[in-house]
Specification:
A seven-stranded mixed β-sheet has the order 2-1-11-10-3-9-4, sandwiched between helices. Strands 6-5-8-7 form a four-stranded mixed β-sheet, with helices on both faces. It has about 240 residues and is α/β, with parallel strands linked by helices. About 30% of the residues are buried.
Amino acid sequence: MVVFICELGDCKNYWNAEGRSTGDESTRCCKQSVSSLKKTYLCKMKTPVNILIFSAPSGSGKTTIVHHLLQKYPQLEFSISATSRAPRGKEQHGKDYYFLSADEFRQKIANNEFVEWEEVYPGCFYGTLHSEIARIHGNKHIAVFDIDVKGGVNLKRLYGEQAQSVFIQPPSLEALRERLISRNTDTPEVIERRLAKAEDEMRYAPQFDIVLVNEVLADTLKEAGMLMDGIVLFKK
C-alpha cells in the first residue's frame, strides 16, 4: 500500500493507492483517484531528483526493494554506506558497504568526511561519505540510499527538494518479528533489541515523502516501480 500525505490547505488526510482516505472522511480534497494521486505527487516535485532515500526498520524488506529498482533502472546507482559493523553473510567491502573499524570511522568523522553519520548502537556506526555522492553524481546518475531511519531523515533535511525519501514500513511489529527470526542471522536478544528500535523508528514515518507498507512484496515492488517511473520521467 502506498500512503500519501495530503498537504492541500488544512487537509491532513492520508490517502492510499485506491484513493480512499485513511483519515477524516468529512474532509475531502483533490486526491480522489489513483490518477489524481500520481499527478499531485509529480506536481510537488519542483526540481529533478538527484537523490533517492530508502529507510526502514531492520527486516522490513528495504534492501530487497532497492536491489529490484537498481536492476530495473540504469539511471540509478547505489550509494555505498560506510559502517563499523562486521559483514553479514556474503556482504563485500566496496560493494555492499565500506567496512571500517570503529577507530577508522571516528577518524573520518574528525576529518569531516561524512555528509551524515549515526551511532546506531554503541560502537556501531553508519554514515554517508562526501566522496560517494560526488562519485555517483559525476556519473550523472541518481544516488540511491539504503540507509537507517535517522540517516534518511538527516539526508532529506540536507538535500531538500533534490531528494525523495521513502519509508518502508512492515505491516505490524509481529510480522517484523517473524521476518527477523526467518533470516536466522541474529540471536533472540538481538531480535528483541531490533524490535524495540523498530517501534521507535516507525514514529519517523511522517517525516518521509512516501510511505510504502510492505505487506506483499510483489505489490510493494510494483508500487515502488510506479514511483520510480515518475521520478525518471520528471528528470528527463
